[in-house]
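One thing: can you check what follows?
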Amino acid sequence: MLARLAAVRALSPANSPYFMAALGILTSFGPMGTDMYLPGMPTIGVDLRATQDQVQWTLSAFFLGFGVGQLIWGALGDRFGRRGPIAIGILLYAVACVGCSLSSDIAHLAGWRFIQGVGACAGPVLVRAMIRDVFERDRAARTLSMMMLVMGAAPIIAPLIGGQILVWANWRWIFWGQGIFGAIAMLALFTLPETLARDRRSSLRPMTLALSYRQLLTNRSYLGYAFGSACIYGGMFAFISGSPFVYIDLFGVAPENFGFLFGINIVGMMAMSTVNSRIVMRFGAERILRIGTMLAAAAGLLVLVVAALGLGGLWGLVGALLLFMAMMALINANAMACAMQSFPHMAGTASALAGMLQFSVGSVAGWVVGLLANGTAGPMGMVICGSALLSLLLNVTLVRRAPSQTAP
């Protein structure tokens, strides 16, 4: 077994049959860490005597940890390579899974969820850097889209697993299931080669890191890509945070069936990822990003109208959300590839900062949905619509030309 893994690592990443599959698994920490326990959120509130907004703290805490932690892992990945920091992150994630399962109140559960998010983000942030190590911009965007097809099973399977666990056991066993996924991800990591050569690794000195982040935060195009993508993530996390209560409490969907409605959106994202992977090499990542952002804004407006007026009931809302979520596939992969294109010498740091912004904005969006909760789908629709419109505004005002120039 070890000899086979060593042979796989010896292959060029672009030629390895396991490369995309392993990257897809490592990128799935986000959906596996959130979607699996979504069906149990109402039950957690009852068991721990917590209100809806308090239960949503646990989701926002994970998002916040997932965002802030990326700054740490991005810097460590640029200094020590990609594989070692990912392994440490997986171990931290596994410890936090045990802590979550043993929590006796909502405050401790939120604290462990924050730690779980910090560990979980090591894989996704450094996987994006590994892709940038191997491919140039448009090929990287195509690879990210193809990887979304591989990892697309996670958001479909995760809530279904969580719902079935609730049929046979309590919500605490969901976190043991997440720990098992961590073990699978560690095995996938062993099949990957190190993609960052030693002569390309950067320093961890505070001044060097400060200059790197200053370089990123003063680059107009980078800000447009990173913040625009972060706003779209805010809309996605508004859906993740609000949909369990809207579907289960408002429309009476059984928890074990929640995963099917949730999975419809992932099918839409996978379909658009296929489209993006086929057309990005022809039209370019930036042009498709602009079109995707415009379509997402239109879909966000539709979600708001349907949620506010109740048009079509449950299935009207499901259809509007499907259109919005599908646009994620045209935005995220292209925005991330464009953001990292001008900074190949610090791809880990560029990926980390963009990822931190995505999940920080996402945590705020999820918190706002809980804060405005009134028993209807209106708050979720308002946050989704506002996030999409802001993303379009940032793209139009900050991204004015293709980032073909190198960073100063």
Observations:
- The chain has one domain: 12-195+203-398.
- The radius of gyration is 20 Å.
- Residues 220-250 form the longest helix (31 residues).
- The CA atoms of residues 275 and 330 lie 9 Å apart.
